[in-house]
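User: My collaborator sent over this chain with a note saying "see what the structure looks like." That's all I know about it. Can you take a look?
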Amino acid sequence: MRRCTLEEVARLSGGRLVNGDPALAVDRLHTDTRSLHAGDCFVALRGDRFDGHAFVPEVRSRGAVAALVSNRLIPGLSGDLGLVEVPDTLEALQRFAGMYRRLLPVRTIGVTGSSGKTSTKELIAAVLRTRFKTKATEGNLNNHIGVPLTLIRLDDGDEFGVVEMGMNRPGEIAPLAKMAAPDIGVISSIGPAHIEFFTGQDAIAAEKAELIAALPGNGVAVLNNMDEWSRRIAHRSAARVVWVGEGSDAVWRAENVHVTVNGLSFHLLHGREQAMVRLPVFNRVMVGNALLAAAVGGECGLSLEEIAKGLERVMLPGARMQVVDFAGVRILNDAYNANPASMRAALLALKEFPGAQRRLAVLGSMGELGRYAAELHREVGALAAELGLDLLIAVGPNADACRAGALAGGLESEKISVVLDAEEAAAALLPHLREGDIVLVKGSHFMGLERLVETIAGKDTR
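Assistant: Without extra context I'll predict from the sequence alone. Here is the result:
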């Protein structure tokens, strides 16, 4: 964040300066007392199980020069702590971020999707960084708190900001898009993730469409024409649409895709130009995400060679198809999260991974599927059977439905185990492991399957 005054903090957040010098320099708005820096303004957020106002008396000793509060009558306050009072600190943080973003010359790229949005965000950032000063959402700080914090990290020297936007309920994307004011909008995919909180798939698609609906007329929407729902909602954008994927309307395409022990290789095609790309990832669905990133790079003026170089430099966050080797066994650690589309993609990647003697999967339950949970877990089990896995360990509250789907698909019962949690899964897996095995570990974050990987491999893989 570029340095501003306490008076500017008050004005941009819609608050009232109640203590401190209006000219006081503020270097950053921050919400976590554990990582405050000198010159910070602490934002006292309230949640269901916490109230940041309880920590305000200690922030001066941690270097903060000011605080954004909704209650200035806090016992033990330091008299030299600047105070800005607002009706609601979260709304004030979001207002500040939106106003602050509009003061900068930076161009922003908004990224959303039911699966693959974090990987797509990282690919876009890697491409843009080949020439431009670029900041991107850290990790998956993509919600109503994470997006404003991402925008506040931008400063005058940044040329691009890549902003990931997540949602799990209706009405969440539009305010994030309004804050970020993106020039380019990217949707990685539209699937049934979080469908528990929606009336159906069409409602999820309508929510994702809020990103491209927020684009200006001179903006660009980048969409994958292989995604059925992306095609259905493209009309929501007044901006120009750039398609990637396959067919005559795809401006960016991939040919000769190969899965190797070092990752994916393919030819990136744009018009009559082409370049060889070697992605350090193993999931074929990543090719589509790479095409989205390539299209963004092209729209921002990068050459095909620069785009290819950026794609090859990408480093994805841990537990996303991370290959962990130990004792002749390879684990595909995709334990960060899961939904039906990403589960299918991971299983297909397991099937394609070269050099495996046997293919095993530990699949944790997927969350936020509501009334569709049993059906969608049965479909996962059926796919595991179709792919001919040598062992399936289903974990968690929907493991029985996964097992039923695998049995119905023809997988022998002796190749299927149903367990409660990560510890039981590790105990069930260990006796079966042999040199040359490939093991996929995937499930929703609440299943904690990264603990299984740590147990098996004996290392911290997060």
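A starting point for your reply to your collaborator: Residues 4-87 form a domain with the Udp-n-acetylmuramoylalanyl-d-glutamate--2,6- Diaminopimelate Ligase; Chain: A, domain 1 fold (CATH 3.40.1390.10).
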